Amino acid sequence: MTKPELIELLESLNIPVNEGTPSDNNIEEPEIVYFWDYNWDDLIASGENYNTNVTYQISFLAEKSRSSKLIELKHKLNDIGIHPSIQHEYDPETRRWHSYFPIEVLENI
């Protein structure tokens, strides 16, 4: 998967998507996806940098733990052979669920 393919997949959910932190304009939406990169791993071929494997955290905020959009995202990923281990935590302050998982994509950095 490439970064443009990842973005296209996330946007296909038809909910707000942000790279980085959620924007002030959509933080109160019932469901939102935001993502950021946290690891770059150079892929070396024939002694030269060939590409970069970039790990992103995908975060999903929702008012319930088993949001239909989160389940839709899981199924879309499964359909293309990606089977993430999705973790969940509840934030009592905002009364929302934060579900998150890593995903690796190829990028030319």
Written description of the protein model:
The chain is α+β, with helices and mostly antiparallel strands and 109 residues long. Helix content is 19%, strand content 46%. It is built from two helices and five strands, in the order αβββαββ. The protein has helices at residues 3-11, 68-79; strands at residues 17-19, 31-45, 48-62, 87-91, 96-107. It has a five-stranded mixed sheet. Strand 2 and strand 3 (48-62) form a beta hairpin. It starts with a helix and ends with a strand.
Give the gist of this structure.
This protein has 109 residues and is an alpha+beta fold. The protein has two helices and five strands.
Main sheet overview:
5 strands, mixed
Low-pLDDT regions = none
Outline = elongated
Number of helices: 2
Helix content: 10-25%
Percent of residues in beta strands: over 45%
Order of helices and strands: HEEEHEE
Total number of strands: 5
What is the residue-mean pLDDT, rounded to a whole number? 91
Structural class: alpha+beta
> Termini, distance in Å?
15 Å
Strand order of the largest sheet: 1-2-3-5-4
**What Rg do the Cα atoms give?**
15 Å
Keywords:
single chain; alpha+beta; 5-stranded mixed beta sheet; 2 helices; elongated
Explain the layout of strands and helices.
Blueprint: H1 3-11, E1 17-19, E2 31-45, E3 48-62, H2 68-79, E4 87-91, E5 96-107
Parallel strand pairs: 1-2
Antiparallel strand pairs: 2-3, 3-5, 4-5
